[in-house]
């Protein structure tokens, strides 16, 4: 299925979209990849969803990516004798290691790591920031804090710590079980929640052993501060604006989104913009104008993908939400200023043969008005470097490795095709031309540009560039 846009759409599956028929409709409406949220999905359901997506993939003859989103550490307060308590701004309130039910003066905090890590002056945000506390004194077993905003607290509400780096890894015991399960099913991407430091990625990479690409979700101030290191150790990033907007000032989130998007593009790694993009479509058939503008901003920034969460997982209009996001993206990319904005963010290539070839292929394709850039890529690296250039013409990524094409389904501008490996240089050119013709990116008389590594089947080597004509039979002409 040929898309009319370059940005990709990642749709979350859930109660409203778990049937195979709905997954087909979501894909037809514009979803390029699907997210399975392990916070709300047990292992049997996850396996069934993966099987249904693979069935749809076979039906539509297109590679479809699957992202499994691990829950990460969930920090919550204990319970109250009366289920909740009403507090007053300015009063002192204690969080401690006493498991007894709480009241208006104290509550159990069943996380000794928090009790030991929080220092005077650190903020504690309860219930997505609806209640805000500032630590006054700590002794390793309790935190005495002052209420600075909000007045209600109830059972099991979440705790966020924007000023505190916790001695916690990114993987909980639940995450370890979930990670083992999703890797067995062959998902393409693993999203890691609440990353604080680069080391959080190392443990997961050791377990994954290359079986899935790793996407770091940026939702904590500690991760923003160490962004370059996290980008270097990850395969992609997600701007998780929900929790990021809790732990950081809301007015800072748009700037951080731009910072992350541009940093990922410089590094040649995909970035997904997520959370509340079309939130009102959970219950309404049309979005607000502000939501349309929000999606458009992410597309103008050159994000690789935009994501739907509850809109497609639990909303009343999942297919309509995907179709709306698709329509917004198409319109933005047709806007006369779109290419100017994208080009203004372009950075200098790295001093490598692959980057030089990718830069040259974009400039040649745009100067000669070629029909497409065709890349042969076994590992996906060549496709990533081609996408980094954000060319005006389509990128056709050919790979004999189906897992590579699935991972590239989240990468900007790439139309992925599973193709048998070429036998020699002439076969490579003929195969590229025929696929460009069959996939309706080029017609007889058009020209395309082909990049690859020679000798063939040598991973990580992009050193060849060739211009070819599409002949009357779809093969290369003179």
Automatic annotation (TrEMBL):
Catalyzed reactions per annotation: pyruvate + ATP = phosphoenolpyruvate + ADP + H(+)
Needed co-factor(s): Mg(2+); K(+)
Domain of life: Bacteria
The EC number(s) this enzyme carries: 2.7.1.40
Species of the source: Chelativorans sp. (strain BNC1)
The family this protein is said to belong to: Belongs to the pyruvate kinase family.
InterPro entries referenced in this protein's UniProt entry, alphabetically: Pyr_Knase, Pyrv/PenolPyrv_kinase-like_dom, Pyrv_kinase-like_dom_sf, Pyrv_Knase-like_insert_dom_sf, Pyrv_Knase_AS, Pyrv_Knase_brl, Pyrv_Knase_C, Pyrv_Knase_C_sf
Pathway(s) this gene product operates in, as recorded in its UniProt entry: Carbohydrate degradation; glycolysis; pyruvate from D-glyceraldehyde 3-phosphate: step 5/5
UniProt keyword terms in alphabetical order: ATP-binding, Glycolysis, Kinase, Magnesium, Metal-binding, Nucleotide-binding, Pyruvate, Transferase
Pyruvate kinase barrel domain segment(s): 5-322
Phylogenetic lineage: Bacteria, Pseudomonadati, Pseudomonadota, Alphaproteobacteria, Hyphomicrobiales
Annotated protein name in UniProt: Pyruvate kinase
Gene Ontology molecular function: ATP binding; kinase activity; magnesium ion binding; potassium ion binding; pyruvate kinase activity
Enzyme class: transferase
Positions of the Pyruvate kinase C-terminal domain: 355-467
């Amino acid at each position: 299925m040929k898309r009319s846009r370059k940005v990709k759409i990642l749709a979350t599956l859930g109660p409203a979209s778990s049937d195979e028929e709905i997954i087909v409709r979501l894909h037809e409406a514009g979803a390029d990849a699907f997210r399975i949220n392990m916070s709300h999905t047990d292992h049997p359901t996850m396996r069934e969803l993966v099987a249904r997506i693979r069935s749809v993939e076979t039906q539509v003859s297109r590679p479809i990516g699957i992202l499994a989103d691990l829950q990460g550490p969930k920090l919550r307060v204990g319970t109250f004798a009366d289920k909740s308590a009403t507090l007053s701004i300015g009063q002192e309130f204690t969080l401690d290691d006493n498991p007894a039910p709480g009241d208006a003066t104290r509550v159990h905090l069943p996380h000794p790591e928090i009790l030991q890590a929080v220092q005077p002056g650190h903020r504690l945000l309860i219930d997505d920031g609806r209640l805000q506390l500032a630590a006054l004194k700590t002794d390793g077993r309790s935190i005495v804090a002052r209420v600075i905003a909000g007045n209600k607290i109830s059972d099991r509400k979440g705790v966020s710590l924007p000023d505190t780096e916790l001695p916690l890894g990114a993987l909980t015991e639940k995450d370890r079980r979930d990670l083992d399960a999703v890797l067995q099913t062959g998902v393409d991407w693993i999203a890691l929640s609440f990353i604080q430091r680069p080391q959080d990625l190392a443990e997961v990479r050791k377990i994954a052993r290359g079986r899935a690409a790793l996407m770091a979700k940026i939702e904590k101030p500690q991760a923003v501060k160490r962004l370059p290191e996290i980008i270097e150790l990850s395969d992609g990033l997600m701007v998780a604006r929900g929790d990021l907007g809790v732990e950081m000032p809301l007015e800072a989130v748009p700037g951080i989104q731009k910072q992350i998007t541009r940093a990922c593009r410089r590094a040649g790694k995909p970035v997904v913009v997520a959370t509340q993009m079309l939130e009102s479509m959970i219950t309404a058939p049309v979005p607000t104008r502000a939501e349309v503008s929000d999606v458009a901003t992410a597309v103008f920034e050159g994000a690789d993908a935009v994501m739907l969460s509850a809109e497609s997982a639990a909303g009343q209009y999942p297919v309509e939400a995907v179709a709306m996001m698709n329509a917004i993206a198409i319109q933005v990319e047709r806007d006369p200023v779109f290419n100017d904005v994208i080009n203004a963010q372009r950075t200098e290539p790295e001093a490598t043969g692959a980057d030089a070839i990718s830069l040259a292929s974009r400039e040649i394709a745009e100067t000669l008005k070629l029909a497409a850039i065709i890349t042969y890529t076994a590992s996906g690296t060549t496709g990533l470097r081609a996408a980094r250039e954000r060319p005006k013409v389509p990128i056709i990524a050919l790979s004999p490795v189906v897992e590579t094409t699935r991972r590239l389904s989240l990468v900007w501008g790439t139309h992925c095709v599973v193709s048998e490996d070429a036998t020699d240089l002439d076969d490579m050119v003929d195969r590229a031309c025929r696929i460009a013709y069959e996939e309706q990116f080029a017609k007889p008389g058009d020209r395309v540009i082909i990049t690859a590594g020679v000798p063939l089947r040598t991973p990580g080597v992009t050193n060849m560039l060739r211009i070819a004509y599409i002949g009357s039979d779809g093969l290369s002409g003179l």
